[in-house]
Amino acid sequence: MPEVPTRDDLADIADPALRLVQAGARLLVDDGFRVLANGLSPELVTGLAGRTRRVFYDHFETKEDYARAVLSAYLDVPEHGELTVEFSQAFEELIFEARGDI
């Protein structure tokens, strides 16, 4: 069963793209609505993942691509599979705001 790594376990993930995605999923688990309301910014994610914005954009062309990868990772965890309507709408707004933003 997939799990979202703890903040401490993120440092053990060698693959930079996976580490960034798992950092985003961790942020959703810890602070879901606040993160979605304020935006899942590259600065917030790279700070938690211990990576730079350059690494972020080396692996994700847009924030939209990144947000979709994070949502996919988040939904891979069985207990996250059924999102509330409000959470789903907030995530769609985040995707909409991220479109074309690099």
What does it look like?
This protein is mainly alpha-helical and 102 residues long. It is built from five helices and no strands. Helix 4 packs antiparallel against helix 5 (85-98). The longest helix is centred in the N-terminal third of the chain and has 23 residues, at 16-38. The radius of gyration is 13 Å and the shape is globular. It starts with 15 loop residues before the first helix and ends with a helix. The model has no long low-confidence stretch (mean pLDDT 83).
Topology readout:
Blueprint: H1 16-38, H2 42-49, H3 53-59, H4 63-75, H5 85-98
Helix pairs in contact: 1-2, 1-4, 1-5, 4-5
Descriptive keywords:
single chain; 102 residues; mainly alpha; 64% helix; 0% strand
Low-confidence stretches: none
Helix/strand/pairing class, anyone? mainly alpha
Please report the number of helical segments: 5
Proportion of beta-strand residues: under 5%
Distance between the termini: 33 Å
Mean residue pLDDT: 83
Q: What is Rg?
A: 13 Å
How many E-type strands?
0
Shape type: globular
Helix content: 55-70%
Please give the largest β-sheet: none
Order of helices and strands: HHHHH
